[in-house]
Amino acid sequence: MSTKMAEFPLMYEENPVSILILPPMNESTAAEAKEYYSTTIQEPLAFSGYYTFPYPITAEILKMEGIYDTELLANMPLAKFREYFGADAVLFTTIKKWDLSYMVLASTLTVSIDCKLKSTTSDQTLWKYTGTVVVDLSGGNSGGGLAGLIAKAIVTAINSAIADYVPYARQANYRALASIPYGKYHAQHNKDQNVQIVDQTPEKNNTAQSQ
User: Fold this and answer.
1) What are the residues facing 102 on neighbouring strands?
2) Phi then psi for 98, rounded to 5 degrees?
3) pLDDT, tens digit, for every residue of 90-103?
4) Torsions phi, psi for 138 (to 5 deg)
5) Tell me: the pLDDT tens digits for 155-182?
6) Where are the alpha helices (DSSP H) in the chain?
C-alpha cells in the first residue's frame, strides 16, 4: 500500500483543474473498443472533481484538424493543448485488453485500461494508473450431471453473446481513477494526501483484477 501524496506529489504541486481527454489508443484486438470506451471516461473524472472538456466536441475538433489517432499527438508539445483549449492537463489512455475468451463451459471478459495524466505547463506526468476488470460469464456452478453441464454451456453462450463491454469499461475506469487525487470541485480536494491506495502503477504491478 502507498498514499496518494507519496505516489503522485506533482498532482498536489500543480493542482490541475481542467482536463482534456484525448481519444484512447487501442492495443487490443477489438476494433470497436475505442468507440465503446470513449463513452465511459468523462463521468468518473467529473465525479473526481475535475472540469472535463466535452469528449465528443474535443474528438470532433481533432478530426477537423486531421487527427484521428492519438498516436499522432505523441510528440506534440503539450503546451499547445493549453493554448488551444485552456487545459491544465491532458489525459492519455491506452486500451491494453478488450477481450472475450470463450470456451463451451467457461467464458471470461477482460477490460484493461492504462491511464496517464500529463501537465500542459511542465510536460511532466502527474498521475498514472492501470484499471483491469475480469468478469466470469459462465453463470457459476451447475449441478445435475449432463443436464447441468448442458445448462451451463447454454448460459455461457448466451452471456458471451450479449456481453456489454461498456459497464465493465466503466468499472475499469472507476477502479483506476479511485487513485487520482481529488480535484478542485470535490469536497475532499487537498484533504486526501494520506489516503492509501494499492501500489499498482504499471511498472510495479501491471494489473489489479476483479473476479
Assistant:
1) 107
2) -155, 65
3) 999 898 888 766 44
4) -80, -10
5) 334 333 434 667 777 877 888 888 999 9
6) 4-7, 9-14, 33-37, 42-47, 55-64, 79-85, 145-162, 165-177
Q: Find out whether 48 and 180 touch, Cβ atoms under 8 Å.
A: yes
Pairing of β 89-102 and β 18-21: parallel
3-state secondary structure 43-95: HHHHHCCCEECCHHHHHHHHHHCCCCCHHHHCCCCCHHHHHHHCCCEEEEEEE
* Whether the Cβ atoms of residue 195 and residue 4 lie closer than 8 Å to each other: yes
Q: Write out pLDDT tens, residues 114-159.
A: 889 999 999 999 999 888 877 765 544 444 444 444 444 433 343 3
Q: What is the pLDDT of residue 58?
A: 85
Closest CA to 180 of 141, 128, 138, 145: 128
Q: How far is the C-alpha of 13 from the C-alpha of 18, rounded, in Å? A: 15
- Which DSSP symbol is given to 36? H
For 12, other C-beta atoms within 10 Å of its C-beta total 14
Please give the model's pTM, rounded to 2 decimal places: 0.78
